[in-house]
Amino acid sequence: MAWQKQILRVNLSTGSCDIEPLNMEWAEAYLGSRGLGSKYLYEEMDPATDALSAENKIIFATGPLTGTMASTGGRYTVVTKGALTGAIACSNSGGKFGAELKMAGYDLLIIEGVSAKPVYLHIEDDMVELCDASEIWGKTVWQTEDLLAAKYRDPLMRFAGIGQAGESLCRFACVVNDKHRAAGRSGVGAVMGSKNLKTIAVRGTKGVHAKDPKAFYKIVNDVNARMTDRDEMSRDGTLAMIDVTNGFGSLPTNNNRSVRFEGANKLNPEAMHSPNENGHTNIVTNGACFACTIGCGRICKIDPKHFSVKDRPEYHGASGGLEYETAYALGSACGVDDIDAATFAGFLCNEYGMDPISLGGTIAAAMELYDIGAIDDSITGGIKLEFGSAEALCQIAELTGKGEGFGADIAMGSKRLCEKYGHPDLSMTVKGQEFAAYDGRSMQGMGLAYATSNRGACHLRADPYGHDFETTEIEGKAKIVAESQRDVAFLDSSGLCLFPGGCGWGLEDYRTLVDAACESDWNEARMLETGERIWVLEKLFNLKAGLGKKDDTLPKRILEEPADVGTGKGLVCRLDEMLPEYYQLNGWDAEGVPTAATLKRLNLN
Amino acid sequence: MDISVTLFGGLRHFLPAGSSFNKCTIKLDDGGHLDELLELLPIPARKKYIVIINDEKVSREAYADITVHSDDEIVLLPPIKGG
Ligand code: SF4
User: Fold this and answer.
1) What domains sit in chain B, N to C, each tagged with a CATH number?
2) Which is the most buried residue in A64, A218, A280, A604, by most CB within 10 A?
3) How far is the CA of A290 from the centre of ligand 1 (A)?
4) In the CATH hierarchy, which fold is given to the domain comprising A253-427?
5) If pLDDT is split at 50, 70 and 90, which confidence band does A263 have?
């Protein structure tokens, strides 16, 4: 089985909560999580709908392997139309919430309509109720979880919800579960806020069943034995990447003015593991999501003597610390080399429910606007928004979470901010979404991956890493990006995490697990076709939403200003040379529209 | 001559004893080549990496032809995936 074969549909306008059978025909064609959630959204909603309107739906989708014993089988995806991008949003998260939702008996939770007043959703297996949220509205994610945990007194109850950023419709608000895991990107938290839905509290006791438990158990163990390279990931987490990109010259710095950050060694694993002058060490331990045998999470503490938390003991405890992406966004992107300040800004993101990548990317753009004089102290409220200022980073992060002062401008995201102040070219975004931690000039494949990502700039929609670190020549990159986008779409739809792919697993290991857990034959050809079908379906959603070839592009800086240092020194991203080949390899026309033959081949007519 | 080599990411765990966090100094004969230098590093053969000298990526085929100089900035990067 692996699928629970039922979905929960909650209509916030009418207050109805209905259990329905899962459309198994769609599950067989789109697997689960990202793919299946996208299929439901595409079929049930007009993609041209405004993201913050009652007509938008928000879907919490688990995969067939979510809640199983397969390593990393705790993932779920939030699928909706993104408030930041206007494109399809598929935000993946770990922690324990997804597995709990699945164990309550649901493959998908579909939320529609808008509630007249703030509510939260309480699920205990078949018992589902909408509850008044007046006591938790206006509270942080952490306070909300603590209050409801005290109310229900069930240590296994899991929560996924928004903080004040989602309530105030911050364009990059995220959905945070388990206090520091997040469906981070594209503004899915703003959609939840627009519906007056504060949080989802879930407890499930039904378990998840593989089609042949004995065979599945054996395959889980066999595949785990092939995860031979996980020690480094447990020890350093994704943060290990910062030395690699900095050495290579692809670490975006000061809003992509540079690709190398002098202060990287103050944010890297060494800095995280070493005591500072006060004898304080940033990292406490590593952390793992449900069923994960890697544990890449960083659990960290801010130095209590640091200016950001000196008189604020509520921030002296351990919580989710810097991963590579947050170290970039709240570090090098803003020129900040203060690990405690970046950790504090990361805590604020989890507390108020903001995507740290977009927050950092937007603050970096604001710092450049400030640097060129497009904004000044009268606009920032007196904050000296200079590159490298840890104080400014912390102040602005908190104001943004609260939606106060200049933080309300930051909450628009980099694209809208730079347009407002007359410099749209300074926004390092694709489809309105801020760059992740790689520069598309020294990593040409990543440039193409950003430009063509269906959810806007993203480092997790393709896998060009190996080839990009091998060569800056563009030959072969279109193929690698096109094929890996399909592979990743399949993996994201399984309910597993992408990171085992960097710890020894290959695509075949994921396929073997899906095949062992799910009914019917999941062979290689079917896996590849499913991944491609999901990718093209997302593309179709975006086309109907009004996005097209004009949106498959990069900021002028990446296309016209050569990289300043590193292996890509002197290069710009050669996107215009790669894009036609990429479209062609996908079976799309010159405008990036899938041809009739491609749609027919994928049963997408 | 003494050559300074920086090992990034997980490669740093294969540094010779007594190295700093991610840097080591290797003794190489004057006029020595890159392949000889790499052989002196205790990195297991199964570990893949790329070599960058003075910000230029070096192709594997060229390792034996490249003469190393004492002021070269040599960096080894593991081909890790993103997160
Ligand atoms: S590898 Fe990291 S992100 Fe992935 S499931 Fe494990 S702990 Fe979570």
Assistant:
1) 2-77 (3.10.20.30)
2) A64
3) 8
4) 1.10.569
5) very high
